[in-house]
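User: Sequence for Spore cortex biosynthesis protein YabQ below. Tokens please.
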Amino acid sequence: MLLPNNVQYNIIVYSLLAGMLTGIFFDAYRIIRGNGINKVIIIFEDLLFGILSGLAIFTFLLYYNSAFLGFYVYCGIIIGFILYLRLISKYILRFEKMLLSSVNKFFRIILINVIYILKIIFYKILGKSK
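Assistant: Structure tokens for Spore cortex biosynthesis protein YabQ:
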């Protein structure tokens, strides 16, 4: 059965976008995983990443593509992933690292201020001074 041209175009575009979305997930996973982790934990994390990214791709394609999974959809996902890694991964990775650093800094400042307030309350209750 032949599909109309606009449907075929949408299938290709959304499969490329699904590959790029997988690349973004992969970059976030690389940042979260870090280095120097036990090999058994890495295997478990890789399996979990594969399952979650597969579910995310399927949900994305189900919503935009009616979950049409032909051979060229898989090729489009792979090509989109490779294009993402080659062209824009370094920029997104830099942005994700900066965002993670900013979020960590924000929570560190909040934690330090909360601890300071709790110390003041603790010293007031016990009647001690620094």
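The chain has a mean pLDDT of 87.
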